[in-house]
Amino acid sequence: MKNPSNHLAIIIAPLLAVCFFTGGALSPFRFAYLPLMILISIRLPPRAIFLTGTLFACGYAVMVVFNKPADGHAMAIAAPEFIFYLLTAWTATRVAATISKERTLFMLSRSTFQSLCNEQVDRANNLQTTLHTLTLIHNKLENIDRCRTLFLGNIAHELKTPLAGIRAFSEILLTYQDLDIPSQREFLNIINADSVRMATLVNDILINLKIQTGNLRLGLNKVRSSELIEECIKAMRPMAEAKGLTMQSSITSDSIFINADKNQVVQVLINLVNNAIKYTEQGGVTVGVALKGRFAEFSVIDTGEGIFPAEQKKIFDEFYRVLDNAANRPIGSGLGLSICKKIVEVHEGTIGVESSIGKGSTFRFTIPIFNEEQFLIYESVERVTHQHKDSGRILIVVRDRSKSICLSKSLENAGNKVITTYNYEKACDILVFTDVNLIISDLGLTIDNNEPLLSRAASKMIPFYQSYFYVEPPGIISQVIIGYIWSPFNRAQILPILETLNLPHKKIAIIPSNVEESRMLQTILSLENYKTEPSINNDELFNSCRFFLPEAIIIGTFEIDQVDLIVKKIRSNPKVSNVPLILALKVPPPKDIKLIPQLLQLLEQCKLL
Amino acid sequence: MKSIDILIADDEPHIVRALSFIFSKAGFVIDTAGNGEEALSKCRSLMPRIAFFDLVMPKIDGIQLCQLIKADIRQQPPYIFILTCKGQDTDKEMCLNAGANDFLTKPFSPKEVMDKVRFLLAEK
Predict the structure, then answer these.
(1) By Cβ atoms counted within 10 A, which residue in A27, A450, A588, B103 is the most buried?
(2) Domain containing residue A244: CATH number
(3) Domain contains A588
(4) Residue finishing a domain among A119, A142, A172
(5) CA B56 centroid distance within chain
């Protein structure tokens, strides 16, 4: 109750009651008047109450004029009564205004309380989900630990087996002086074969580790798939011929180009053909390729012993070897197929096997076909990443590739050195090896776990800025958002932004993501005397633009992809294309992150660094 | 029934070749097997005095083989060496419980094996 007249009204109210009861018995009109005013002051808005009071006063005056009292002092009686009615009406108006304001505040606090309760429930649910996720991660880590121990045990076993041969035969050669030449040669050959086997195994383990740690760099390029098959056949033909097997190729089209690392895919083919030859006694091996949708499907078909259905899934596991097939089973590390699977998966393809016992097996794997557009993006990103590997100044962590490229180009054109990456984990790694003076990130990443990056940036005193970026055709990055607010909303967030905009008509459109959000924003804005127009979607906004031309638009807490679409629609509509946009976020940004609305401002700060 | 001195069972041909070379060079009568099944049938028919079984073998592994032989051959069972790469205590315990007598951890020294075998056969 800021208005002093409200206080006055409340003090006057009991006085009026006293006044009424002292003279009320004489006038039944006045007797009906006060309860009526009390009743309507609860229900009607202040203006209506005052109007009713005035009508009453006028009615009384008219009544006095028509029923002139006998003593003839009509005016003397009417004037104070008239003033009394007006004063009562004014008092009721003020009281009603106070009540309605209090009621609005009460409703606002109730809805705020409700939303806080909802938030609390959400948080509890989130906590539950987090706990569940952590339990899952814990189990997964335990499993990884078990696998690692098993892996090390297997490596030791696989290395010791050829080592046993080397040790035994070298000692035999040293101990027995009277060995004949053929025996000596036989033993030396065994030592040699075992050392080759150990070297292959170590090599396989290294490739495996490289893939597992994500250090296998793919040199993706446009590769003719038939070339790969020819190369594989050339390398493996001697081995097949030595065993009396045929080696054929089946290429449906010579113009299937794949987006692949040539050496890696040849490695996969060689591993598969090598296995096929090892487990085939009669017949031959056929290597082929065919187009299958967006993929090239390679196949290695043999006429060997086949694989039992139960074993078909296990053969791609590390160190799994088909034991039960034969007494003198071929020597292998048990890593070949697991490496094949990983290389294919790194290429975003799939691998599988079909087999029937005694008839043979067919291994198939797919590799994406070459796509010019994707390749150009990949290449330019790789170029930017490599060019400034050691002397970077600005680290851009943006998930969307086109946004990332546009942003890095804009910053490079402004004379900055830029490093780009797509996720916080990689950004963390970059911070270890490279000097970075500034980190810019987009809002698409807020849901990620950015704690490690934030703490690392904080420890190195690197400023961290986040913003919403929008790519305008033809590929210019722009920051269309002039301010950010976040849930739970309050006037302290919104008012400073609106004050800087200085809107003459105070008209604001809201594109809310839900009803709750719409109500909260409307309440806050209407209390500050802003006129609001909530639209459920953009089309509705454009329809209402005919009557309500907004001076600012608040975009609700949508996913970033949806925000992109909304901004695109707003920008393409001439009526609202230049209206300032305010973006609402689901969660408050971390304290260490500055949400910046202007790229220029950011660049100025960069130059100062 | 024909009796032999030593039976060597391993799916690694190089290991079998190394052991068979040193034992035959020392004048022992030996035979070899490439898997557990073959080893079991040779044990039954050839009655070896000493047997070397690999821990991991196709068809029947070393531990199962020990159990089967100890249950099968009551009179004069062979002295069983388990060839192992792991040499872990848990493996050893399982082997001893199954009826193995000693271990040979890969990579092994042929001279040491020879000494052990000579000692055992002299004793028997």
Answers:
(1) A450
(2) 3.30.565.10
(3) no
(4) A119
(5) 13
What pTM was estimated for this model as a whole?
0.46
Nearest residue, CB atoms, B108 vs list A164, A176, A326: A164
On whether residue A197 sits in a domain, the answer given is no
Instruction: Measure CB to CB from residue A172 to each of B12, B106, B110 and give the nearest one.
Output: B110
Long-range contacts for A20-28 (Cβ within 8 Å, ≥24 apart)?
Answer: A27/A81
Q: Which domain holds residue A339?
A: 221-370
The answer to whether residue A429 sits within a structural domain is no
Question: Does residue A352 lie within any of the structural domains?
Answer: yes
**Is there a contact between B110 and A168 if contact means CB atoms under 8 Å apart?**
yes
HSE (CB half, 13 Å, CA atoms) of A501? 25
B97 to chain A nearest CA, in Å? 23
Question: Closest by alpha carbon to A443, among A298, A609, A316, A594?
Answer: A594
Of B14, B58, B111, the CB nearest to A165: B14
**Contact between B15 and A160 using a beta-carbon 8 Å cutoff:** no
Would an 8 Å CB–CB cutoff place A194 in contact with chain B? yes
Minimal-distance CA residue of chain B relative to A154 = B86
pLDDT of A427 above 50: yes
pLDDT in tens, chain B (124 residues): 567 889 999 888 888 999 999 999 888 899 999 888 888 888 888 888 899 998 888 778 888 888 888 887 777 788 999 888 755 556 778 888 888 888 888 888 888 888 888 888 887 6
CB contacts < 8 A (A, B) = 74
Residue A227 sits in the same domain as residue A365: yes
A330 touches B: beta carbon within 8 Å: no
CB contact (8 A) between residue B22 and residue A172:
yes
Nearest to B34 among A165, A175, A327 (CB): A327
Count of domains forming chain A: 2
Interface touch A164/B14, C-beta < 8 Å: yes
A151 close to A319: Cβ distance less than 8 angstroms:
yes
Quick one: pLDDT at residue A60? 76
* Per-residue model confidence (pLDDT) at position A322: 59
Chain A residue whose CA is closest to B113? A168
Q: Which of A210-214, A285-289, A314-318, B102-106 has the lowest mean pLDDT?
A: A210-214
- Domain B6-123 belongs to what architecture? 3-Layer(aba) Sandwich (3.40)
Question: Is there a single domain that holds both residue A110 and residue A242?
Answer: no
